[in-house]
Amino acid sequence: VGGTGCQGMSYRAGFAALVGRPNVGKSTLLNALVGEKLSIVTPRPQTTRHRVLGLRNGPDYQIAFVDTPGLHLGAKRALNRAMNRTAASALADADVLVYVVETTRFTAEDAMALERVKASGLPALAVVNKIDRMKQRDLLLPYIAELAGRHDFTDILPMSALKGDHVERLVGRIAARLPESEQLFPPEQRTDRTVEFQIAETIREKLTLELVQELPYGIAVQIERLAEEDGQLVVDATIWVDRAGQKPIVIGARGERLKRIGRVARMELNSRLGKRLHLQLWVKVRDDWADNVEALRSLGLE
Fold this sequence. Notes:
This protein is an alpha/beta fold.
């Protein structure tokens, strides 16, 4: 596409970063905006650790949405500090910010994320997410008015990312704020993340969902081998835990839990990647890896 879209309209392209505290629904929103699952989603705060790019093309725009880790206070571990840095650097590279909050709840972490938005000086839209969970609808308008008083947002849109409400409206508002530009990515590209990354993240999602109450954040997944053999993808993956006592929790009695996690991950990846997977999982201990900068670097988190 040249510098113009159809009927002589100007073509716009750029980066829209989704920012906010953990667990406001940024990853669910990214998936709704691009129309497919690119970011993993769990009820656990701080599930997103990486910057994940998802692309959406229209007749006269290309939006590169960037899902970011939730900005959070009390970042005691090296992993938490790295996640905050990842989120902050995504802000620096954006053209437009999409500030995501939850209906009727505004916390100290929401305020901190908003300070980052203000300091960027970039145009920012606010998304008031999870309106499907609201018990008292009459509280929505006062909440929106309060939010409007906190910053000069270009738009404030209430929506449910989970239900996919008002996605098209949000896309239109974001596209209008992007700079005039030619396409930044080939139209067929959906994300900047590799197959290895998608496999590792899917395994981590299934682990988090299975172990939601039992395991702290010291869990990571590393792909050791990825090869195509006899028309299927053969994957060897290591699950890292940061305490010896966590290893039997992940494996479960007679290895049943690990088998279940592998089976659920494999079924989802078969359909997402359109290929059959042969998945082998190992659980290994790396003491305190979430506090170790070298370990974070080797896991692509730093």
